[in-house]
Write a structure and sequence with these properties.
CATH class: Alpha Beta
Helix content: 10-25%
Largest sheet: 5 strands, mixed
Shape: globular
CATH superfamily: Spore Coat Polysaccharide Biosynthesis Protein SpsA, Chain A
Strand order of the largest sheet: 5-4-1-6-7
Length: 111
């Protein structure tokens, strides 16, 4: 089983925008939708966890029709901290976990 963790909690301060960076549109849809479309090609949506933080309710609302799970990162302290915010239920030590950021991708095998 493959689980995917999408890191969508950041503010995007370098973008100089009040909108969460994952909600900016490209190609007619929010960036986070592109990421989820890609993730859904390798695992069912039920195996996708979206880590939210900045503008969490707006991100959840945007993804309301998706069957993904959400985890709230209450304090945004960087990518590593966000990756640690993923839930452990449904993700055991023998599964492959793919962590996806809208800007870059990193692959990790759960220990």
């Amino acid at each position: 089983m493959i689980s995917v963790v999408v890191l969508a909690a950041g503010e995007g301060t370098r973008m100089k925008s009040r909108r969460a960076k994952v909600l900016h549109c490209a190609g007619g849809m929010p960036l986070v939708e592109h990421v989820l479309n890609t993730a859904a090609q390798i695992t069912p949506e039920e195996n996708i966890v979206v880590v939210v933080g900045h503008q969490a309710e707006e991100v959840k609302s945007t993804l309301a029709q998706r069957r993904v799970r959400f985890v709230l990162q209450e304090e945004q302290r960087g990518t590593g901290h966000a990756a640690g915010a993923r839930p452990t239920s449904g993700i055991c030590c023998s599964v492959s976990v793919v962590t996806i950021c809208p800007i870059f991708m990193s692959w990790a095998k759960a220990a």
